Every structure is written in C-alpha cells, then in structure tokens.
Amino acid sequence: MDKQKIFSNLNLFKGDSDTICEDASIWIDGNIIKYAGPSSEFTNTSHNIERVDLGGKTVIPGMTESHAHISYTNNGPLELDKTPIEEAMIKTVDNARIMLGSGFTSAISFGSVHRIDVFLRDAINSGQIAGPRLLAGGRDICAIGGNADTYPDHAKPQTEGLAMITDGPWEIRKAVRSLWKNGVDVVKVMIDGELISLQGRPGDLGYKDEEVEALVDEAHRKKMKVACHARSAEAVKQAVRSGIDFIGHANYIDSEALDLLIENKDRVYVGPAIAWEMAFLKNAEKMGYKSDSREVIEYQKELEETISSYKKMKEAGIKILVGGDYGLDIAPHGTYAKDLEHYVNLFGFSNAEALHSATSLGGEAMGNDGLLGTLEEGKLADLVIIDGNPLEDITVLQDHKKIKAVMKDGLIYQGLTNKINPYLNENL
Ligand SMILES: [Zn+2]
Prior knowledge:
By secondary structure, the chain is an alpha/beta fold. Helices cover 30% and strands 20% of the residues.
C-alpha cells in the first residue's frame, strides 16, 4: 500500500475558487489527493497514517512556470548562447532544484540551450535530481535574420547558438522532426523580434504564414506543443492563425488580434513574460543604456502597451499564464513568483486571480490528463506549504524562507533553495 499522510490545521486555497478554507485537512495516498477540504467534514480514524499539524500555514496547489528557460544561466540577455554546454548543464541542475524549491512544481519550456531540457526532464522523472515536472524544449526555431539569429555571419561564436536557423516549409519540418527525434515536448519558434536585437524588432516577422503553418502542422502531427515569441499584433495574428498553443509576450494587441484570440480562447494560452521589461527598465543604466536612450524609451512604451493589451485580454477571458523568461542576470532563477506581484500591480489581477494563473490555469496548460493545478480528490499531490497568506500578501510567495515545503508527486522537499546542503531537513 502506498504511504498515506494527513495534513491538518491549515488554510487551504484549492485553486477551484477564489477563497481560502480555514481549518482544512488534506489526505494524501501515495501521490494522489484523497481529500482536500474543511476538517469538519473529514473523518479518518485509521492509526497507520502519518499526521502532520501545519499550525495554520497556507497550502496552495503547486505553481506552473509557463515560460521557462531552466538552462539559461543567469547571464546577460545578449549572451544566452555563450555558456559552454558543460557549465550550462551543471547550472541547469541547480536551477531546476531552485525552481521546485520556489513552489513551482511544473514548467513549460520556452526553449533550451544545447539539448539540455530533454536530459533534465528525464533525470527529474527518474528521481535522480530535484526539479519541476517539465515539458522539455529544444533549441529555438528561427528564420535567417530572426530574433535568435544573433550574429552577423563574420562574427559567429564557437557554440551552436540558441536557435536552429531554418527557412522554408520543408527545412522547418526537418528541424521539427529532429527536435522530436531528440525527445522534445515543446517546439519554440521566433515569430518576431525584440527591441534590443540587432536584427528583427517587434513587428518584423521572420517567417511567411506557410512556414509557421508547416512548423505547427509537423509539431502537432508528432504530438508536440508549439510555443512562440510574438510581440506585435501581426505576430500574434500569425501565431493564432497557425494554431500555436502558447503565445509568449503578445504586447501590442489590436482589435483584430483580440478578436482572433477570443475566437480561439479555448485552446490558446498567452503570457507576457513581463519580468524582462520590468527588469530591463530597472537595470538599464547598469546595462549601459542611458535613461533617454532609444531602448529605454521604447521599452517604457512597450510596458505601457503591454498593460493595456493584458487588461483587454483579461477582460475578454483569454487564458493568461504566469511565467517570465527568468534565468537572466537581471531576472535570476528563484525569483519566478515576482510574476504574480506584477500581474496584481500592472494588469489589475486580484491576488486570487494571479494565483489561479499560476496554479489551475498553469496545471491545465501542462496537460497531464487534467490531474494538475488544483487540490481536489483524485488529483496529483503537488502543493506548496506557505508560512503566510498569499491572498492577503502576494509577495509572500517570493520569500524562500516562507516556503516551508513543496510536495511534488507525493514527495516532500524542504530547503531546496538553500545554497548549502539544499536537502537539509527542517521541521514543518
Ligand atoms: Zn523566452
């Protein structure tokens, strides 16, 4: 028989409503939740069950980081492809542990350097290392001169680069097949560019429609999901029309793009990854951009556009995920929960709505037979035990000391974010 556990004396955010149930209990059998609800409606008198009094702590479903780059090594945004594979692999193992320890039990990859994600996912699934459930990414797919084709031909670095530079429907299909052959779950494609990129900027579409359609068709044929970088309205339209599943950024939404998103709102997920703009604007001077530089002025404008776009999408009921390009020097691993605070401060989310984006919606986006994202009978036992109440203070999720334990698949992890002896066992 699987090991059973009962947590009691806890405040429960189940993820299926906006409220917290005070004085709740959770009964876990192996990796499955058998009960989660008011203690008054729960009786189990069996003597063979481990019982833990949580002393009034809050329990929420495990969160999903939906725009993850676990293999990014906290370096500069223009140096992502310069980390040698040996260093990237070691740091990725560390990043995965920190992500789980931060309360994120699932992650949807928006791209991996080298072929790290697939090996990472398999090592996590086999129990060799600690980390979130992962939909693994591969190297990006990007047109010549697109957002991840970072160098002119005379200045290519020695590494293989962030992206597979691939043009034309059949070449793109070949690239997708090669990602599939190597075990990838999510294909990431660069649709348009970036304000600090040397080449394409937002609105510069690297691919013709038929190329993106070929990419999505091939990926879906192989049962893979497709994620994209799409900032402009035109990029978002190409993404939606081509059938892309996860749209990253979507900063500049016009009425046509909004209508398309509404028509497809049952199947498409968006997410701003706003931590990048916020961190850039905060650190621009340090990064060598003056406060009146073109870049700072344009990113300021992009932030304003993003705020108005996301308010419109939220109003229209578009599915908005939490996740934010963490893994850069200015937005390092471990700070993922900052996203929820941004959603509250910038986009008018209530604390409960931000939590829903991170938990129930993120769990739904992961797929996994609908077994993730809420704490209900029959679901997988992924949860976070917090010393504090995120419905009252959403920033409590950013404080690693307040994350008392994380359960994934019925296993309890503690101290994962500690620098030294991360598996140190503390009392709940
Ligand atoms: Zn990204």
